[in-house]
UniProtKB/TrEMBL annotation:
Domain Fe-containing alcohol dehydrogenase-like C-terminal span(s) in chain numbering: 193-389
Name of the protein: Iron-containing alcohol dehydrogenase
Coiled-coil ranges (or none): none
Assigned keywords, A-Z: Oxidoreductase
GO molecular function, one term: alcohol dehydrogenase (NAD+) activity
TM regions (residue ranges): none
Source organism of this protein record: Candidatus Ornithomonoglobus intestinigallinarum
């Protein structure tokens, strides 16, 4: 538990108003591909214009590509990489939420390497080839609190042709500069604030449950869990509550560090299987749906009782003494954020899919099962889906 390897060369500038500091930073190139989603928020909220002005102030030319969707697809990655090459971009500035930040990592790799993204993906039908060339440098400007990929080298991409949603990354793809400005997050709608906040929470709770947890990842994860649990309900209730936004953003960004120190668990593999088959399912919503049943699986087996007690205390049950207290805290937080009634059936998932999802989770991201605190078979995994199903 004392041994760890922490590699993070990102220059992280965190805090309200920090976007205004972007233009003062040393840039990793002369022309940026500015990557945004195919939605309207970054334009309507003025974040794109502000970012372009900051890059101009730093002496950087820009080319904007708005091609990223929720649960980003492999084809979009390849299109974005072609855009970067055709426009002579020598680095990427990713402005957006988790989908955009994840996509930047994959586009960075494919703008500098031959072939198809799936040539380099590990898991499923991926060919697991090493990158030939180093990717384009990445600058991130986060507009949501959830993914943590603003400061780490991992992104999750979907391949609808094979019903696969797999994490892709390489240490060489860690962003060189990250701006985390909670002021940019005040316009996120309440429901998505909750989904994203719970994604950040589960990054940290899974690190705590992981058999690879160490003294540093545990310390950081507990700090993040405490901040998210205390402030997420406030951020959901009032998006303009800047103090709440700051603390949730802190918990999310810290997760980017904890996940570099310690792997998450199969909870993430399982949700990726869900949204691989059902693309309209937001990642955070899927995690919420299975979270209680997933934790109960390990509580019933006394796999990491002490870790659950620590998390329950961090989430506000200060006299917590048993692992079940974590479930009490988790359910209350979901109720306080108005997401306790989420149903798989509302997103088209059928109970008959449980084993299919379980097998897909292991085939595509089986490495995360190795981080579980005890063994979980395909039948066990399907049982968790069935228990969580509504």
């Amino acid at each position: 538990m004392i041994n760890f390897n922490f590699y993070n060369p990102t220059n992280l500038i965190f805090g309200s108003g920090s976007l205004n500091k972007l233009g003062d930073q040393k840039m990793p190139g002369k022309k940026a591909m500015v990557l945004i989603s195919n939605g309207k928020s970054t334009k309507e909220n003025g974040y794109l214009d502000r970012t372009l002005e900051q890059l101009k102030r730093a002496g950087v030319e820009t080319a904007v590509w708005a091609g990223i969707m929720e649960n980003p697809l492999k084809d979009a990655i390849m299109e974005g990489a072609s855009f970067a090459k055709e426009n002579g971009c020598d680095f990427i500035t990713a402005l957006g939420g988790g989908a955009v930040l994840d996509s930047a990592i994959a586009i960075s790799a494919m703008a500098a390497n031959p072939g198809d993204l799936w040539d380099y993906v590990n898991g499923g039908t991926g060919k697991a080839q090493p990158l030939v060339n180093k990717g384009l440098p990445i600058v991130t400007v986060a507009t949501t609190s959830g993914t943590g990929s603003e400061i780490n080298c991992w992104g999750v991409i979907s391949n609808p042709e094979t019903n696969e949603k797999i994490g892709f990354g390489d240490p060489s793809l860690v962003p060189v500069l990250s701006i985390v400005d909670p002021e940019l997050m005040t316009t996120v709608p309440p429901r998505y604030t909750a989904f994203q906040g719970f994604d950040a929470l589960f990054h940290n709770t899974e690190v705590m449950m992981s058999n690879g947890v160490n003294i540093l990842s545990e310390t950081l994860a507990l700090s993040a869990i405490e901040n998210i649990a205390k402030y997420l309900p406030r951020a959901v209730k009032d998006g303009a509550d800047l103090e709440a936004r700051e603390h949730v953003a802190y918990g999310s960004t810290i997760a980017g560090m904890t996940m570099q120190l310690t792997s998450t668990t199969a909870q993430h593999s399982m949700e990726h299987a869900m949204s691989a088959y059902h693309h309209s399912l937001p990642h955070g919503a899927g995690l919420i749906m299975i979270s209680k049943a997933f934790a109960e699986y390990f509580i019933e087996r006394h796999a990491c009782d002490e870790q659950f007690v620590k998390m329950a205390r961090a989430m506000g049950i200060h006299d917590a003494a048993k692992p079940e207290d974590f479930i009490t805290a988790l359910v209350k937080l979901q109720e306080d954020c108005g997401v306790d009634s989420l149903k798989m059936s509302d997103y088209g998932i059928e109970k008959s899919e449980c084993m299919t999802l379980a097998v897909n989770a292991r085939e595509t991201m089986g490495g995360l099962f190795l981080a579980n605190p005890c063994e979980m078979s395909d039948e066990d995994c399907a049982g968790i889906f069935e228990k969580a199903y509504r």
